[in-house]
Amino acid sequence: MKSIFKSFTLLTAVLLSNNIGAVQGMRQPSGPYLGQTPPGLTPELFAPDIISKSGRSEYGMSFSPKRDEMYFSVQKKFGVPAAIYFSKLEDKQWTSFKKANFTQGKKAGEMEPNITADGKKVYFTAYNADFSDTKIWYAERYKNGWGQAQKLASPINQDEVMTSTLANNGDLFYTNLSREFKTYYSPNVNGKYPKTLKADIEFGAHAFISPTQDYLIVDSRNKEDENRTDADLYVYFKKKDGTWTKPIPFDSEVNSSFDETVATLSPDGKYLFFSRRTKGEELDLYWVSSDVIEKLRPKL
Asked: How many helices (H) and strands (E) in the chain?
């Protein structure tokens, strides 16, 4: 498991700077999305010098349905367990970033938060200090905050798994590390996940399922040029018969010569977030108009 997990961290290894919170004396950002100017069809660095900073990496952005909370994953350095940090919009200003610590120390690593469409649960990946026992966990929201996290009681966690995202109906998609780093899913049955199924796609991991399951975004080593070793983003669209299309690579504005990985969508459906590695093991968060997805949608 450790060697498999390290293969993932080569794509998503992250470095956390010591100044994760606000700079002393600096006014906290305000407005939706930290007050950032929305991007167009060209990806832009998300919140430079606030979240995306030189000397560290970030990945796996998730917002609450009202966009008044944000959660994302960070690590101090390659090979060190990750942590989830968050900020809330209070009195029109974002609070200083704090460590979530959902498992309250039961697990050394926590990463890849995903808040459900109703905002009542947050799913995430948790694991031991040696990168073993990598499972899907969740916490439920109460009036005063999140409750104590629990490991998901499901056959999903019989394997080593990570990167859970949920559609609006609760169906859960994830990456199975024990089964060749493939994308699997589990249909929601009254809030339970009694069955696991392999997604009927050609390739890809770190999958993001759209709210209505009309498309699925994955990352994978570039397939168009055998001489390239960087990871790119691909999208599958659901056909009328319920099967998926062939994988479609994003255009060169999104898929650069660097690694692109761990895509997520904003709750309002307007923006695609993903991480890009431009130097060393550092990943920065980028965002782009979700129109880049619609540009690729075939007429089925």
From this structure: 2, 22
Query: Coil, strand, or helix at residue 11?
Result: helix
CA angle centred on 74, ends 68 and 78, rounded to 5°: 170
Compute the Cα dihedral for 251, 256, 261, 266 and give only its sign: negative
Here the tokens at position 97 are: 């970033």
H/E stretch holding 74: strand 69-74
Q: Which range, of 90-99, 119-128, 201-210, 266-275, averages the lowest pLDDT?
A: 90-99
CB atoms < 10 A from the CB of 178, how many?
13
Delineate the domains of the chain, giving CATH numbers in brackets: 2-294 (2.120.10.30)
pLDDT tens across 192-227, in order?
A: 999 999 999 999 999 999 999 999 999 999 988 888
Residue 153 burial class via C-beta count within 10 angstroms: exposed 0-12, middle 13-18, buried 19 and up: exposed
Pairing of strands 150-151, 83-90: unpaired
Per-residue confidence band for 300, with pLDDT thresholds at 50, 70 and 90: low
Q: Check: pTM over 0.85? Answer yes or no.
A: yes
Nearest to 167 by CA among 216, 126, 131: 216
Q: What distance in Å separates the CA atoms of residue 61 and residue 70, rounded to the nearest whole number?
A: 7
User: Quick one: DSSP state of residue 189?
Assistant: B
d(CA 118, CA 138): 14
Q: 229-247: b or e for each residue (b if 16 or more CB lie within 10 Å)?
A: ebbbbbbbbbeeeeebbeb
